[in-house]
């Protein structure tokens, strides 16, 4: 008798791949739209990730976001301000782009484990965003050779209110979108 557990990963259905592709496309459309207010623009990228976590869950949203990063890395102008390439990905704000991955995982754990409830989802998004801020700020300090206080002033403080608004929108509307997609048999 074979007591080993199969390590074969579950296959994704065509429907799942299509939904991931649609959310990747939404990220590619909305993320470049930004309001430049300094070295770090106000972007819709984290809003799309928050929604993606409610709609797709941790794993599928993380795949969607990583595909988006790869699209931008190869030169398609999908990053904020319609930028792309390694220079953007590894430049001063690249830490925030990469920091969105742990943000998605942390927020996604709270969102999924709570059954997409408001308060745990908000807590997860706040904690995940704090980790993204920390990662991006350290990266910014190293690349720009500036102080932590200067980086926080440029890269974090101006965005807190906007990010909280994005979190509230996602926590309020995300479960509704998820429910409708489940009812429609798309998830």
Task: Compute the average pLDDT.
Answer: 92
- β-strand amount: under 5%
**H/E element order:** HEEHHHHHHH
- The total count of helices amounts to 8
Helix and strand composition category = mainly alpha
* Beginning-to-end CA distance, first to last residue: 36 Å
Rg (C-alpha, Å): 17 Å
Low-confidence stretches: 1-6
Largest sheet: 2 strands, antiparallel
The number of E-state strands comes to 2
CA-based shape: globular
Give a structural overview.
This protein is mostly helical and 187 residues long. The protein contains eight helices and two strands; from the N terminus they run H-E-E-H-H-H-H-H-H-H. Helix content is 68%, strand content 2%. Strand 1 and strand 2 form a beta hairpin. The radius of gyration is 17 Å and the shape is globular. 36% of the residues are buried.
Structure in a nutshell:
With 187 residues, this protein is an all-alpha fold.
For the structure shown, list the relevant keywords.
two-stranded antiparallel ribbon; globular; disordered N terminus; 187 residues; mainly alpha; 2 strands
Note the topology.
Elements: H1 14-30, E1 34-35, E2 42-43, H2 45-56, H3 58-73, H4 86-89, H5 94-113, H6 118-144, H7 148-155, H8 160-183
Antiparallel strand pairs: 1-2
Helix pairs in contact: 1-2, 1-3, 2-3, 2-5, 2-8, 3-5, 5-6, 6-7, 6-8
């Amino acid at each position: 008798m074979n007591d080993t557990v199969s390590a074969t990963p579950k296959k994704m259905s065509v429907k799942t791949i299509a939904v991931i592709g649609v959310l990747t496309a939404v990220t590619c459309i909305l993320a470049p739209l930004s309001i430049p207010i300094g070295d770090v623009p106000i972007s819709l990228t984290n809003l799309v990730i928050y929604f993606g976590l409610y709609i797709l869950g941790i794993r599928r949203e993380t795949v969607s976001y990583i595909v988006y990063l790869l699209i931008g890395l190869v030169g398609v102008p999908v990053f904020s301000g319609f930028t792309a390439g390694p220079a953007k990905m590894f430049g001063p704000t690249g830490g925030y782009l990469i920091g969105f991955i742990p943000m998605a995982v942390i927020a996604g754990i709270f969102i999924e484990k709570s059954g997409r409830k408001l308060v745990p989802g908000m807590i997860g998004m706040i904690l995940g965003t704090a980790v993204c801020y920390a990662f991006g700020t350290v990266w910014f300090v190293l690349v720009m050779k500036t102080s932590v206080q200067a980086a926080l002033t440029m890269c974090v403080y101006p965005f807190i209110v906007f990010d909280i608004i994005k979190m509230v929108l996602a926590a309020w509307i995300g479960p509704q979108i998820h429910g409708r997609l489940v009812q429609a048999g798309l998830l």
